[in-house]
Design brief:
Helix content: 25-40%
Strand order of the largest sheet: 2-1-5-4-3-6-7
Structural class: alpha+beta
Number of strands: 19
Radius of gyration: 23 Å
């Protein structure tokens, strides 16, 4: 007897609540600020075949959409008949998990009546795994830290202590890493327990009918959304800063009646620095951008992801092959939404925003090597800050907002409590949003120094220093990012290892988003409010908006 559609929908809604509770368990239990304060995670529930049925709202596209494929890989790697209740599998292989070594992905089989009925999975960022540190300086993956192939982390409820000790022994933050791994375990267990409870409550023996309903309903809805789009192929080239030389990202987007194909052919080759991107990560953010415009109200799962295909020639910088260095893969991976939007804007000119800051200003910090005798004062910390988003077709861009990453900005109080650093300023950056009928979002101005007499290192790998976010349809470009020592110091490149000496102040300004539409078409009241609020200076307003004043 088939379950009614109404009952299936109720169970679907319950499943979304279950997976959100699973994600929150990870956030609450995590040790590292980038997880518990910034939400750099994913959590999901998968059916017997390894298809993602539901994902937590909290999380990044880079974690969520790579997790959707990684579970399929682990599902086939380990035989179902060998799985036992309490088992948990893991890997941080960048080409399976989430694109670089610092992301650990776990998968746990869920049992009901002694049979595997599905899986829970999660990913989060560990702050340090040894090597040269979380930066772009590695020449290959072996420079970047500890790589753990797919293996069993927990065996029938017993943690693999040897594996845990190996991870701790290869980290500058062993306690945080241990705590974060246990938080990942708790996340899987919480999801499994709540899923089991849900099945008991609804009288389910398996998830076959429910998962088929969720996935097929989502797939049909996505295909219907695609069928309403114009068919054809559109191309775009995005120039980005790169490391030492600018890089071109190429894309061609083909829209067919029931699927989309995105191809990166023509994209520059791999770098000898750690800014290369495995295809799984580039695809994760590219598909996220497509889904922001096409069927955005359809839940993200295996069904809604299926019609989107992403390819690229092996060896291009968006399809890096092992053992390429990939530690800072997010630097270019998070630029792919603007690349995709460049294609989509030609097909759907009324729906696509201007370019934004896109790449988050991720600033890994740690003590200098000669300070290893500091004992508990040794530290490794990863700060995250965001710039402005591009203006939208009917609204201004968002200021200091995490798009596309979804990783919230680091909190000042938390950062100062766990590392010897001091913030002097953190504020909106006036005049950084591109002028237009709708203004681009503002970036931030941030100043930070050591709170002790010790120097510290910063591993820079940020974008939009040389190539600011472009406006769309007459909108002006957003302000470029800036990095320097001291307010009047020399402009520094956006990538490389930087030593901030005791007494010096690191000043960085995140980029603004591009404007949308001609500036002279901006509403006078909106511009007046911008000036009154200090978002746009009177001089900049006169220069960019002219007679609008």
């Amino acid at each position: 007897m088939r379950t009614s559609q109404t009952r299936l929908q109720v169970m679907w809604n319950r499943l979304l609540a279950v997976v959100e509770e699973q994600g929150q368990a990870l956030v609450r239990a995590a040790f590292s600020p980038i997880v518990r304060e910034c939400g750099d995670i994913s959590a999901g529930i998968f059916d017997f075949h390894g298809r993602m049925v539901a994902q937590a709202v909290t999380g990044t596209p880079g974690h969520i959409n790579t997790m959707a494929e990684a579970v399929k890989t682990l599902r086939t790697r380990f035989p179902i008949q060998d799985m036992k209740p309490g088992d948990i599998y893991m890997t941080n292989d960048p080409w399976i998990a989430s694109g670089h070594l610092n992301d650990f992905l776990l998968m746990m089989p869920v049992f009901f009546d002694d049979k595997v009925v599905g899986f829970t999975s999660c990913t989060s960022h560990l702050v340090d795994l040894g090597g040269l540190g979380m930066g772009p300086e590695g020449s290959d993956i072996y420079d970047e830290g500890l790589l753990i192939p797919p293996c069993k982390l927990v065996d029938e409820g017993k943690v693999n202590n040897l594996l845990l000790e190996i991870v701790k022994a290869n980290s500058r933050e062993p306690i945080a890493n241990e705590g974060d791994i246990y938080a990942l375990i708790a996340c899987c267990e919480a999801g499994a327990a709540r899923l089991h409870q849900m099945m008991v409550e609804f009288g389910l023996k398996d998830l076959y009918e429910l998962s088929d309903y969720v996935i097929e309903t989502s797939r049909r809805g996505t295909i219907e959304a695609i069928s309403e789009l114009p068919s054809g192929t559109w191309r775009h080239v995005l120039k980005v800063d790169g490391y030492g030389a600018e890089i071109e990202l190429h894309a061609s987007l083909t829209i067919a009646k029931d699927h989309l194909l995105l191809d990166f052919s023509g994209t520059s080759g791999c770098s000898d620095k750690g800014i290369n991107v495995p295809l799984n990560y580039a695809a994760a953010y590219s598909v996220f951008a497509l889904r922001c415009i096409i069927g955005p109200d359809i839940p993200n799962n295996a069904g809604s992801l299926a019609p989107f295909q992403v390819t690229g020639p092996k060896g291009c910088i968006l399809n890096a092959q092992p053992p390429a260095p990939v530690a800072m893969r997010h630097t270019l991976g998070q630029m792919t939404p603007d690349l995709v939007f460049g294609c989509l804007s030609q097909a759907l000119p009324e729906l696509v925003p201007a370019e934004g800051a896109s790449c988050m200003y991720d600033l890994p910090l740690r003590n200098v090597p000669e300070a290893q005798d500091l004992g508990d004062k040794q530290f490794a910390l990863e700060l995250v800050f965001n710039g402005g988003t591009g203006a939208r077709p009917t609204l201004d861009g968002l200021s200091a907002t995490a798009f596309p990453s979804g990783v919230w900005g680091s909190q000042i109080e938390t950062t100062e409590a766990v590392a010897p650093v001091l913030f002097h300023r953190r504020e909106f950056r006036p005049d950084s949003g591109g002028a237009g009928r709708f203004r681009g979002g503002l970036g931030q101005h941030i100043e930070i120094s050591a709170s002790s007499d010790q120097d510290f290192l910063v591993f820079l790998s940020v974008e939009r220093i040389l190539n600011p976010a472009k406006g769309r349809y007459g909108g002006q470009d957003g302000a470029a990012g800036r990095v320097r020592i001291g307010r009047s110091g020399e402009e520094l490149p956006g990538k490389g290892e930087l030593r901030v000496k005791a007494g010096e102040t690191l000043v960085f300004e995140t980029p603004g988003g591009g404007g949308y539409g001609a500036p002279q078409d901006r509403c006078r009241n909106a511009l007046g409010w911008d000036i009154e609020a200090g978002l746009v200076s009177a001089d900049a307003a006169k220069s960019s908006y002219g007679d609008t004043l």
